[in-house]
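Lab notes, practical 5.
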Amino acid sequence: MTATELGWITLGAGVLVVAIVTLLLVILIRTVDRIRAVLDDVWTTGQEIANNTANLDLLRRMNMVAVDTRATARTLADRRRRGVAGAPGEGAR
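Output from the prediction step:
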């Protein structure tokens, strides 16, 4: 084998290595882009969930007020039925 042949073989091997590395980098970049797209979807979904649940505490407090209001209304209605003082529109007896 001559020096020229060895040079061509070395050059061919180098080109092959560069082509394989380039292919692997392209595959890596595409994979990273797909991962980024999925993460963007996850982030967007998380933000939507956070926006949808932001008012849950307010709704819970409103529910507690509604339960208290209903209990008060039942108490007042019961007092009125029994004729107990303190019902709305009635003076002290």
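Observations recorded by the TA: The CA atoms of residues 61 and 67 lie 10 Å apart. Residues 3-82 form one domain.
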